[in-house]
Amino acid sequence: MSARMGLAAVIVLAGAAAVRAQLQVQADKENVVASKLEGQWEPDVELTRRLVGSVPVPPAGQADKNPARLIVKSDPALAAKIPAKFARFFEGKQIYMAGLITLQDKERPFVLIEHKGNPHLVWFREQGGEALGDAESFNVMLAVAKQTQDDLLFIGGDFNNQPFSALRRAKAEPK
What we know:
Number of helices: 4
Mean pLDDT: 84
Strand order of the largest sheet: 1-2-3-4-5-6-7-8
Helix content: 10-25%
Structural class: alpha+beta
Radius of gyration: 19 Å
Number of domains: 1
Number of strands: 8
Oligomer: single chain
Shape: globular
Strand content: 35-45%
Distance between the termini: 64 Å
Order of helices and strands: HHEHEHEEEEEE
Low-confidence stretches: 1-21
């Protein structure tokens, strides 16, 4: 390896590390979604039917499982673990929240950003041996109610061409 190639490798690696170091949560208490998203959410069947026209039916034998139930936990440290290969997408974007989201009974890392003017949740899954090797996303809106237990969460597609599904805060389990 020539000295020039070695220097180029150091610059590239240093640049990737610098980008990774820049990805951190910059919380804003005025961001409605980030300040109220944490918790457990369950489908609001009637409102989803109104918005979507139908409600997905669970596969046979899984009616007791609720694949649409979401659990959101805040963990700001996860933003720093986003691989450098996603740096270009996150360039110039503020990360309002990071943590773990349980989707279809699988806990996955996520970040909440603004993308094209919309609150946007980007979640990661394993691919090719990398824990955060692939990213998926969706638009998200949250309507705050007078009583927290009445808050509504709306989840759309990753583009502005799909209707939103509705969720409500899950009722607290009796102790």
